[in-house]
What we know:
alpha+beta, Ubiquitin-like (UB roll), Translation Initiation Factor IF3, four-stranded mixed sheet, 10 strands, elongated
Amino acid sequence: MRAPGVPRPPVVGRSESTAPRHPVRGAFLVPGGHRWQDVTKEKHISEPRINDRIRVPEVRLVGPNGEQVGIVRVEDALRLAAEADLDLVEVAPMAKPPVAKLMDYGKYKYEAAMKAREARKNQVNTVIKEIKLRPKIDPHDYGTKKGHVVRFLNGGDKVKVTIMFRGREQSRPELGFRLLQRLAEDVQELGTVESQPKQDGRNMVMVLAPTKKKAQAMAEQRKKRDEAKAGQPAAEAGDEVPTQTAAPAETAAPAETADAG
Length: 261
């Protein structure tokens, strides 16, 4: 027991730290010290500097139509931008001197966003669809499965066709081979055989590739949707047929009665 009033002896091997027990969010411990620093304040600005944010004495100025103006003082470049009702945008900050261009920065950002959106819309993602069949498939089921293959190929996607063998069917691989050949011949106008039928354990696999590219298929689908939207109001307008009022029938003149003379 420690006597009252006697301080506790220091613990060997333990260093007292003033760091908080639970670090704050966005902070890290500096190596070799115990001071916590907040890293959330460090923001990397990806947008270019414009107008008054350009802190250099002179710039190489480019006109709004791409013409080279030359090296001018940044005050003169800002004055020219104000006179033309444009913005001074720093397009090459690492050059010596930095390159700045006169442009409508709001319009530039809008057009860049639209280009990025269009690029994402036209982005091609290769997708491999899969269809599974049995060697002794029913004709109606075969037609349904073939319809799925046709839809996938029209969409510009590859199709992996798998024949599943069970039990004694494994001793008759020629049944699956003939079925795959039949399917390839039925859809030869829409796709080609990219990978010939081959045995894979209990299954037989064949890969079909579309004849049209994915981007072309997506463009055709968008065109069809636009045509359908444009044709819908016309069809609704055509349903309203103006009613024509029937003209009143002309009254026939009274027949002349012959005199019974």
